[in-house]
Design a protein that fits this description.
The protein contains 12 helices and 12 strands. It has about 325 residues and is an alpha/beta fold. The two termini are about 30 Å apart. Helix 1 crosses helix 12 and helix 5 packs across helix 7. The radius of gyration is 22 Å and the shape is elongated.
Length: about 325
């Protein structure tokens, strides 16, 4: 009997097969991997009917809809090779009895480091310093660079990444305030040197604000014009979570009008970034834009694919998967 795996990611099927076989799979059956990334949805619906595993699309372009979930009657696991899974109808999968797993924690270090890098680049006016020096100018006393030490950093979303960031910020001598739907214990707050606060309190008082929360109906549009208007004139905001969490138009206006000090974004409402995005009209010296790469390092890519492959092999070996996001 052949085990059928449908892959929605643009990955080489033969390479995937070798990785799965090398990960300790115990079944003697042959493995068939079908790459459906270039196929239209109606064809994908037909191909998942007799599949046992679905590997999701890490680029988020191929959605796993309710129609696919209903058709996938033999599927034991939908494994998403990323932390995010907003392109999967997880409720429909749960109703169909299909567990959906992500690779939680695989990119934690990378994103935490990126947040600190972005803040330092903005504080040190690195973009302006590079641009002007490269043009032969000497702005040594004109940049107005700042220091991270002594600043108040507001962390919105204190999950794995928020905590990893807090741990790394302690040696920099920053003060920290955080918000999360689940407040940390007093012991953890002490360990992370972080004080709990509301979103309003953080937006009004923090020198640097970074977002590390998942995209849900509650967080969609979470940081809108009202909250951006609360920020101090020199404050910085960093979004490494999901583009839909921040009102991009309101942020662009605040940057263009000099109402806030700067911003760094790695995620956008539409990806790849749309040429009509209002952020592209902002003075680039106070804005850092990156193409959703905060969590994409050489090391994290290996952790992500290894976690995904190991989870698939666990299920095919008759064990329970880790990192389930839709079934208790």
């Amino acid at each position: 009997m052949t085990v059928k795996i449908v892959s929605m990611s643009p990955l080489n099927a033969e390479v995937l097969k070798v990785m799965i076989k090398n990960a300790g799979i115990s079944i003697p059956d042959d493995i068939e991997i079908i790459n459906v990334n270039p196929l239209p949805d109606p064809e994908i619906v037909e191909l998942v009917r007799d599949a046992e595993i679905i590997l999701g699309d890490y680029s988020f372009n191929k959605k796993i809809s309710k129609e696919i979930a209903i058709a996938a009657k033999q599927v034991k696991l939908i494994q998403q090779p990323s932390v995010g899974y907003q392109h999967i109808d997880v409720q429909a999968c749960a109703e169909a009895g299909i567990p959906v797993a992500n690779t939680a924690g695989a990119n934690t270090n990378a994103v935490a480091e990126h947040a600190i890098m972005a803040a330092l680049c903005l504080l040190k006016k690195l973009i302006t310093a590079h641009r002007t020096t490269f043009a032969g100018e000497w702005k040594q006393l004109d940049l107005g660079a700042g220091e991270l030490s002594g600043k108040l950093w507001g962390i919105i979303g204190m999950g794995r990444i928020g905590r990893a960031l807090a741990e790394r910020l302690i040696p920099f001598g920053v003060r920290m305030k955080y918000h999360d739907i689940a407040r940390l214990s007093a012991e953890d707050e002490k360990a992370f040197s972080a004080e709990y606060g509301t979103i309003d309190e953080i937006m009004q008082s923090a020198d640097i604000i970074s977002l590390h929360c998942p995209l849900t109906e509650e967080t969609r549009g979470l940081i809108g014009e009202k909250h951006i208007a609360q920020m101090k004139a020199a404050s910085l905001i960093i979004n490494l979570s999901r583009g839909e969490i921040v009102d991009e138009a309101a942020l662009a206006r605040a940057l263009s009008d000099g109402k806030i000090g700067g911003a760094a974004l790695d995620v956008f409402q539409f990806e790849p970034i749309n040429r009509d995005n209002p952020l592209l009209a902002v003075d680039s010296d106070k804005l850092i834009l990156t193409p959703h790469t905060a969590g994409v390092t050489n090391e994290s890519k290996m952790r992500i694919i290894s976690t995904a492959i190991n989870n698939i092999v666990n299920v095919l070996n008759g064990n329970k998967p880790d990192f389930i996001v839709n079934i208790k």
